Amino acid sequence: MIKENQDELISNAINDVTEKLSKVLLKEFLKLPDNLQVSIVLIKSAQLLLANILCQVTTSKEELEKIAEIQGKEIQELTLDCAYSGFSDKFTLDKH
Description:
This protein is mainly alpha-helical. It is built from four helices and no strands. Helix 2 crosses helix 4 and helix 3 runs antiparallel to helix 4 (73-86).
């Protein structure tokens, strides 16, 4: 019971920090010129699409990890996040 309460407190603290940081980042993003905002959104969209495609075409957890390793750090992280959140059944991964 104490562990569950402690885990909930930690989770709430992480969510609070994430929310505050997100607001600050959004304010800074909105200060950028419009064309730079559009470029950033397009780049991020392309990266997310690539991560999703990698999750779609790979057939095993090992293959996905091997492909993710040769990607840049950012694409690697997006690919593994995509696998954990959207393809956990396909790769027999535990959802967090």
